[in-house]
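From the shared-data thread, chain only:
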Amino acid sequence: MRFDLDRRSLLRSGAIAGSTGLLLMAARAAGLSGAPLFTLGVASGEPTPDGMVLWTRLAPLPLEADGGMPARAVPVRWEIAEDPGFRHIAAHGTELAEPAWAHSVHAEVRGLRADRPYWYRFIASGQASPVARTRTAPAHDQLVDKLRLCFGSCQKYEAGNYAAHRLIAAEEPDLILFLGDYIYENGPQQDVRIHLNPEPFDVPGYRVRYASYKLDPLLQAAHHAAPWAVIPDDHEVANDYADTLDEHNGDPAAFLRRRAAAYQAYWEHMPLRRANRPNGAMMQLYRTLKWGRLAEFQLLDDRQYRSGHPCQPPELLAQHRDYRSIVQDCAERHDPMRSALGMPQERWLRGAFEASQAQWNLLGQQTLMADCPRLNPAHPDTGPDLYTVDNWGGYPATRERILRHWRDRRIANPLVLSGDIHAFAAADLLDPDRPEAPPLASEFVGGAITSKNHDPLFKRSTGRAHGFRYAENEVRGYASATLTPQQCTVRFVGLDNPADPRSGARDLATLTVRSGQRGIES
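Structure, as C-alpha cells:
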C-alpha cells in the first residue's frame, strides 16, 4: 500500500523539511540504492541499572507501509559507547530487522555500568544512524541525590508543531515519561498541519501514521536526548475505547482486529522490550521502572482491561450508537465490581507498591485521577453535576481502592503523573473515607504537547472541586520534575505559541511536595 503525496503537500504540512524531504524524494526517484535508512531516527527506553532498549526502524521510504524495505530480514549492528566520539565502545551486537515487524529493531542491552550516560548508534548496509544519548538507571539499592524528569502527553500532529520536544531535549533530563496519545487516529483535518494518510484501521495505515509523526525532527531530538518510558492511551488505537468497545459501540470482533493492528504498530515504533510485543489484540504494558532507592514508577494500562463506560442508555449498545462521555451520576458508576484496570492489574499494582523500597512512589498513568465533577453547562450554578466517564470519574471504586491501600499500607510519598485532558492540573488526592483529613497523595497532569482543550467551564469545575491546587487549559506544553530525597518539585512549562516550532516558553507554575508531608505546598 502506498500513500503518495506531492512535494508541495509534504513541505506545506511541515512533516518533512529541507534536506530530509529532498532525500526522500530522491530515494523514491532512484529506488533503494543509497537511500537513507534511518529516516525515523533512533530512540532508547526502559533503563535498568545495567542497560536499556535501543530502538530504530529501517525505512528509506517511510510513508509507504513497508517503509520501502525489501521483504527480507536485514542485519543491523548496534554500538553503545562511553563517549559521543565512540572511542570507548562499551557493548555492541547485531539484531535482525524483520519485515513482519516493519524492520524495527529493539536491542536489549545488558552489562553496562549503573547510573551513567552512554551514546549509541546503529549501522546497516554501510549507513550509520544519528548518534543519540541515553543512560542507565542507578543500582536498585543505590542512594540517589536527584532525578530530573520530563513528562507529557497528547501530541496531535495537526494541532501544532513540537516546540515542547525541542525544549525537553534542551533540558537533557535523566528520563522522559510519555503518558499517552503519541499519535491521533483521526482522518486528515487541516489545522496547523494535516495528517498524511486516511484514518488507519490496519497495520499499514498505523505504520504510515507513526512514520508521519516520527519524521518530525523535534520529536526525534527529544528521543535522542534521553531514555523514554511510554504508555499508550486511547488515540494510539481509537478515541475513548474501553476493552473491546470503541466509542461507537461497534462490533467487538472488528474492533479487536483494529486493536491488534494498532498494538503491533505501537510496539514497532516504541523503545519497548520483546516481553511487551503484542500477541494479537493483547499486549503486556503495565510494569515497574526503578530509579535506585529514590523513586519507583508503576506504569499502568487503563484501556485494555477496563470495564465498559457506566451510566449509558441500554439502547446505545444495542443499536451501535455512540456512547455518552459525560453523564449524570448513577449507581453503576459506583459499582465495586467495576474496574478501570481490571482486577488482575489492580492486584499486581497493590503488590508492586507493597514491595517498593523507594522513597517516592510514582504512578504513571493516562487520565485524570482526581475527583472532579463537571459543571452542567445548562445549569452551571444549580446542577446537577456531570461526570466524565472516560477517566477515573467513570471508575471511582478503583480510585478509592488504590487510595485506601496507600493509606492502610503507609506507602511512602505516593505521586500520580497523568495526561489525557489537554490541560495542566495539580490536585491533592483526598481520603475517600475522611476527606477532611490530610491528603493521601498528589497528582500532576503535565499539559498537552499540542492537543487542545476547548472546555469553557474547565477552570470553574476544577476551582470548586476539592483538592485542586492549579488548573490551566488554554496553554500547551509539558512538565519538568526534579526529585530529591527532600522534595519533589514540578514545573509546568507553557508554550508561547504551539504552532511555532521555535516558540519560546514560560513557567506557568512551580509546585512542591515535601517528603513525608502529604499534599502540595501552598
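The radius of gyration is 22 Å.
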